[in-house]
Amino acid sequence: MDNPTVGEKIEAPLAETNVTIQNYAYTPASIEVKKGTAVRFTNLDKTGHTVTADDGSFDTPLFSDGESQTITFNQIGEFPYYCRPHSYMKGKVIVVE
């Protein structure tokens, strides 16, 4: 296991927020976060889902009931996303300074 050395910079999210996936929907569907925030997506449905950016900048593997995936947003902008198996499921992360 690698251990950080004194003075080594460790990248860590500034904050964390949560989005749940339930009844084939992301809740909340749109969120605004500060740059550097980690967003945890937790699936509460019995079927698998993904969180896939419209522009391809992020794409989680399929994850199941009770599982989570976390994405850290380090760029300012709007990041619409959808679920690959259920393309009608849509959400958006808005990242501000």
Automatic annotation (TrEMBL):
Cofactor, how bound (note): Binds 1 copper ion per subunit.
Residues of the EfeO-type cupredoxin-like domain: 16-95
SUPFAM superfamilies recorded: Cupredoxins
Extent of the signal sequence: none
Localisation: Periplasm
Cofactors that this protein relies on: Cu cation
Predominant subcellular localization, coarse grouping: periplasm
Keywords attached to this entry: Copper, Electron transport, Metal-binding, Periplasm, Transport
One Gene Ontology cellular component annotation held by this UniProt entry: periplasmic space
Keyword Magnesium tagged: no
Residue sites binding Cu cation per the record: 49, 83, 86
Tree of life domain: Bacteria
Molecular function via GO: copper ion binding; electron transfer activity
InterPro entries: Amicyanin/Pseudoazurin, Cupredoxin, EfeO_Cupredoxin, ET_Amicyanin
Official protein name in the record: EfeO-type cupredoxin-like domain-containing protein
Classification lineage: Bacteria, Candidatus Woykeibacteriota
